[in-house]
Amino acid sequence: MFDFTSRPGTSAQVQLTPDGRLRHFIDIDGLSQALLEEILDIADSFLGVQQGEVKKVPLLRGKTVANLFFENSTRTRATFELAAKRLSADVLNLDIQTSSTAKGETLLDTLQNLEAMQANAFVVRHSDSGAAHFIASQVTPRVAIINAGDGRHAHPTQAMLDMLTIRRHKGEFAPLKVAIIGDILHSRVARSQILALNILGAAEVRVIAPRTLLPVNVEALGCRVFTQLQEGLEDVDVVIALRLQKERMDGALLPTESEFYRYYGLTQESLAWAHPEAIVMHPGPINRGVEIESAVADGPRSVILDQVTNGIAIRMAVLSMAVSGQTRQRMQASA
Amino acid sequence: MTLPDIPPLLDRMQSEIESCIDNFGLTRERLALVGIHTGGVWIAEKLHQRIALTTPLGTLDIGFWRDDFNRQGLPEGIRASHLPFDIENRDLILVDDVVMSGRTVRAALNELFDYGRPSRVLLASLISLPGRELPIQADICGAALELPAGQRVKLSGPEPLTLSLDTARR
C-alpha cells in the first residue's frame, strides 16, 4: 500500500511548470479558469481533426504513453489509448493487477522499468485516492502523469470532457444551473465536476441525492444540496446522472435499487421539472432503470454519446499539453 | 527600411492568380483558396473577395503538424482547421503571409493531404524572404524582400492589414 501522507506540496504546485503550463494532470483543484479554458479550446481543435478523413496528428510521434491501470476500466482505457494513438504516440497498455506488482515487484520498481523504456507519459488509474499524485512525485521530470481516476478523489479528464460537452451545447458557463444526481459519496467524477463548474463560473451547481449518498460537508466544494429530486431539478440547464456504483454499496447505503430509481431516477416525467432545453449527461456505463430511464438516455436531450466523442478530444488535449509541459521544463532546465 | 503597402501587393497576387488560372487551365468552380492561420487567412480573405470564387474559403491551423514539438512544445492558441469543401481532386491555392524557412508550408501540405488528395496545390505568399530550409517556393508572390540581419516582417490585421519590422526571436 502507498504512503500518501508525505505528499510534497499541493496538486496545483505539482501539476504546473514554473511558467504555469500543465506538467501533470492530476486534479482540477487549484487550476485556473484560463488553464481549463485552454484545455477546452485545444480539445475543440482536436474535435476538428477527428472530423477529417485521417483522424491522426503527428504531435506525439516518437513518444510513448503507458496506460497503467491498477483498476479495471475498459472505456476510460480505450479512450486514452485512442487519444494517444491519434496523437501518433506508441501505447503500452499495462494491466498492473495481473502483472508485475502481483508477482511481488514494488510499484516503484515497475515505474523505474517503464521510465527505462523511455515512456513519456503515464496514464494512471488506481482505486486509492492520491495514487496519481504519489506517482507524479516519484517519476523523473521527463514523464507526465495523467490521472485517469483515483479512488474517491478525482477524475479530472472525465470532468473536462463533461465541461467540453456542456460548452459545446450551451455556450457560456456563467448563466448555467447544473444538477448532479446520484451517488455523490463514492463519485470522484462528481467532485471533479463540481470543482470544474465553479472554476469555469457556472451560476449554480446542485447535487441531488439521499443523505446516505452525500459526503459530509459536501457544500464546502461549492454546491447546493437537495435531497428531493423535484426541488433539485427545478429549472436547471444541465442534468448529470451519475452511475450508481453497486460494487461500492456493500448493501448498506440504499434499501434497494428500485427504491433509488423511484425517488431519484431520471425519467421523462422527472426531467420535465428541468428547463425545457436542459441537456442530459451521464459518465457511463449506464445502469438503465436504476439511475436513468432508457427513454431519457436515448432521447433527444441526451448528449451521452457526445461525451464519449469529446472524451477522446479532451484526452488528446491533456496528453499533448502535459508532454509539452515536460518538454518546456527540460528546455528551461538545460538553458 | 521602408516596407511596401499591402494593396499593391494584393493587386500583384490577384494578377498572378488570374495568370495561373489561365496558364494551368484551372476551372474556377474547382479552385479553392486555403489560408494558413493567422496572417495567411487574412490575405486569403482579401484574395477570395477579389477573384470572386464560389467555393468557400478554407482555413488551416498547422499547430498540430509542426516539426518542433520536441523543442518548443505545444504552440499557443491553436484553432480548428476548416475546409468546407471536398479537397479530393480539387485545385488549391495555399495562402500564407510570409514564406521564409518553408517549414510552415511543409506542415500545411502534410495537413492538407490528411483531408484528401488535391489534384494541384499552388503556393501564394504576400512576402517571400531569404532563409529557405526546405525546397519550397511561392508560385504567387506579392514581393520578395531582403531584410537587415536579425529582422523579420510581421503582418498585423485583419483591418487594416499592415506590415512592420520585428526583431527575430532566436
UniProtKB/TrEMBL annotation, chain A:
<dbReference type="GO" id="GO:0006520">
    <property type="term" value="P:amino acid metabolic process"/>
</dbReference>
<dbReference type="Pfam" id="PF00185">
    <property type="entry name" value="OTCace"/>
</dbReference>
<comment type="similarity">
    <text>Belongs to the aspartate/ornithine carbamoyltransferase superfamily. ATCase family.</text>
</comment>
<feature type="binding site">
    <location>
        <position position="284"/>
    </location>
    <ligand>
        <name>carbamoyl phosphate</name>
    </ligand>
</feature>
<dbReference type="Pfam" id="PF02729">
    <property type="entry name" value="OTCace_N"/>
</dbReference>
<feature type="binding site">
    <location>
        <position position="125"/>
    </location>
    <ligand>
        <name>carbamoyl phosphate</name>
    </ligand>
</feature>
<dbReference type="GO" id="GO:0044205">
    <property type="term" value="P:'de novo' UMP biosynthetic process"/>
</dbReference>
<dbReference type="InterPro" id="IPR006130">
    <property type="entry name" value="Asp/Orn_carbamoylTrfase"/>
</dbReference>
<keyword id="KW-0808">Transferase</keyword>
<dbReference type="GO" id="GO:0016597">
    <property type="term" value="F:amino acid binding"/>
</dbReference>
<dbReference type="InterPro" id="IPR002082">
    <property type="entry name" value="Asp_carbamoyltransf"/>
</dbReference>
<keyword id="KW-0665">Pyrimidine biosynthesis</keyword>
<comment type="pathway">
    <text>Pyrimidine metabolism; UMP biosynthesis via de novo pathway; (S)-dihydroorotate from bicarbonate: step 2/3.</text>
</comment>
<comment type="function">
    <text>Catalyzes the condensation of carbamoyl phosphate and aspartate to form carbamoyl aspartate and inorganic phosphate, the committed step in the de novo pyrimidine nucleotide biosynthesis pathway.</text>
</comment>
<feature type="domain" description="Aspartate/ornithine carbamoyltransferase Asp/Orn-binding">
    <location>
        <begin position="176"/>
        <end position="321"/>
    </location>
</feature>
<dbReference type="InterPro" id="IPR006131">
    <property type="entry name" value="Asp_carbamoyltransf_Asp/Orn-bd"/>
</dbReference>
<feature type="binding site">
    <location>
        <position position="75"/>
    </location>
    <ligand>
        <name>carbamoyl phosphate</name>
    </ligand>
</feature>
<dbReference type="GO" id="GO:0004070">
    <property type="term" value="F:aspartate carbamoyltransferase activity"/>
</dbReference>
<comment type="subunit">
    <text>Heterododecamer (2C3:3R2) of six catalytic PyrB chains organized as two trimers (C3), and six regulatory PyrI chains organized as three dimers (R2).</text>
</comment>
<dbReference type="InterPro" id="IPR006132">
    <property type="entry name" value="Asp/Orn_carbamoyltranf_P-bd"/>
</dbReference>
<feature type="binding site">
    <location>
        <position position="103"/>
    </location>
    <ligand>
        <name>L-aspartate</name>
    </ligand>
</feature>
<dbReference type="GO" id="GO:0005829">
    <property type="term" value="C:cytosol"/>
</dbReference>
From TrEMBL, chain B:
<keyword id="KW-0328">Glycosyltransferase</keyword>
<dbReference type="InterPro" id="IPR050137">
    <property type="entry name" value="PyrR_bifunctional"/>
</dbReference>
<dbReference type="InterPro" id="IPR000836">
    <property type="entry name" value="PRTase_dom"/>
</dbReference>
<dbReference type="Pfam" id="PF00156">
    <property type="entry name" value="Pribosyltran"/>
</dbReference>
<dbReference type="InterPro" id="IPR029057">
    <property type="entry name" value="PRTase-like"/>
</dbReference>
<protein>
    <submittedName>
        <fullName>Bifunctional pyr operon transcriptional regulator/uracil phosphoribosyltransferase PyrR</fullName>
        <ecNumber>2.4.2.9</ecNumber>
    </submittedName>
</protein>
<dbReference type="GO" id="GO:0004845">
    <property type="term" value="F:uracil phosphoribosyltransferase activity"/>
</dbReference>
<keyword id="KW-0808">Transferase</keyword>
<feature type="domain" description="Phosphoribosyltransferase">
    <location>
        <begin position="5"/>
        <end position="139"/>
    </location>
</feature>
